[in-house]
Automatic annotation (TrEMBL):
Location of the protein in the cell: Cytoplasm
Binding partners and assembly: Monomer.
Record-given protein name: Aldose 1-epimerase
E.C. numbers: 5.1.3.3
GO molecular function, one term: carbohydrate binding
The UniProt record lists the keyword Cytoplasm: yes
Binding residues annotated for beta-D-galactose, in chain numbering: 72-73, 172-174, 244
Catalytic residues as annotated in Swiss-Prot or TrEMBL: 172, 311
Keyword Isomerase on entry: yes
Keywords: Carbohydrate metabolism, Cytoplasm, Isomerase, Phosphoprotein
Entry similarity comment: Belongs to the aldose epimerase family.
UniProt organism field: Novipirellula herctigrandis
Pfam families recorded: Aldose_epim
Length: 346
């Protein structure tokens, strides 16, 4: 890695002591310390203390990273724009996942501290060159992390291109509100603001349907424990080895407005995480591929379902799904989305 020496770790801290650590390698969030109901601080995200562990981790868990140019899957690593077909790496069985072999999670971003009224932050920039990982267009990407004094981490994504190209950026942090390495997340209570979801085939590619969640294990419209229905006999749970699905968020009024997407509560600590976003979808993944082989920052083993991800996004495989909202960015347009992770305790 030629620019190894340029990799740094940045620390954001607000007036109440909440602390977020970010490295410009992969724009990775390595740590988030937040208080429980008694004010005790705990690191609630999975990750490592050393860069080499992120680089060498088995099964590529994407801990804490920004993933792109296209987060999630593209069927058979192919899409067509204006009659021209583009081929991408097939790094997830026969499909393309999270931007390819060297996606945005594995590059060094330019970084500079920024601040404003009531927040401090980090601005990260990366130029993905034309045909990098097979994608057309020089894509200028900017991601900002802003930590507010209201215990909110706001993530803004921006991008421009000189050729039509699919863009779908998201954040792949794994959370455990009891603390990283503190057992499983199956007892966390989850609410998803979504009455529909996008079922998948055996390769986890959406079928194109968007059925109601009512009467299925995928109904999180009222908060319930993540583990409540995960053991049910259900073809979709078999395909995902648990929950690993995109949910269609209920958007009212302005589709680009910030909407409550999810709320997670952990009763022992009292910690609450709310996710708000401008995006139309959210991928709920509950650590099905964690299997105890990975040890984290504190030396604790990351158990099966020891963390959950809530990846705000456009839907998987949108370039090949005409009935999904488009993810194609054209020259002269600006890609712009915002997601906020808000922490509290009760």
């Amino acid at each position: 890695m030629e620019d190894f020496d340029s990799i740094k770790l940045y620390t954001l801290k607000n007036s109440s002591g909440m602390t977020v650590k970010v490295t410009n390698f992969g724009a990775i969030i390595t740590s988030i310390l937040v208080p429980d109901r008694d004010g005790n601080m705990e690191d609630v995200v999975l990750g490592y203390n050393h860069l080499k562990d992120y680089i060498n981790a088995v099964d590529k868990p994407y801990f804490g990273a920004v993933v792109g140019r296209y987060g999630n899957r593209i069927a058979k690593g192919e899409f067509t724009i204006d009659g021209e077909t583009y081929s991408l790496a097939t790094n997830n069985n026969e499909n393309h996942l999270h931007g390819g072999i060297i996606g945005f999670d594995k590059v060094v971003w330019d970084a500079k501290p920024v601040e404003g009224d009531g927040w401090s932050g980090l601005e990260l920039n990366y130029l993905a060159k034309d045909m990098e990982e097979g994608y057309p267009g020089n894509l200028n990407v900017k991601v900002t992390y802003r930590l507010t004094n209201a215990n909110e981490l706001v993530i803004d994504y921006f991008a421009t291109t000189d050729k039509k190209t699919p863009v779908n950026l998201t954040q792949h942090t794994y959370f455990n509100l009891k603390g990283e390495g503190e057992g499983t997340i199956l007892d966390h209570a989850l609410m998803l603001n979504a009455k529909r979801y996008t079922p998948v085939d055996e390769g986890l590619i959406p079928t194109g349907e968007m059925p109601d969640v009512a009467g299925t294990p995928f109904d999180f419209t009222t908060a319930k424990a993540i583990g409540c229905d995960i053991g049910q006999e259900n073809e979709q749970l078999e395909f995902g080895l648990g929950f690993d699905h995109n949910f269609v968020l209920d958007k009212s009024g302005d589709s680009d407005a910030m909407t409550l997407a999810a709320r997670v509560t952990e009763s022992d600590s009292g910690r609450v995480l709310e996710v708000h976003t401008t995006e139309p979808g959210i991928q709920f993944y509950c650590g099905n591929f964690l299997d105890g082989r990975l040890k984290g920052k504190s030396g604790k083993t990351y158990l099966h379902r020891g963390g959950f991800c809530l990846e705000t996004q456009h839907y998987p495989d949108s370039p090949n799904q005409p009935n999904f909202p488009s993810t194609i960015l054209s020259p002269g347009e600006e890609y712009r989305t915002t997601t906020a992770f808000k922490f509290s305790a009760k």
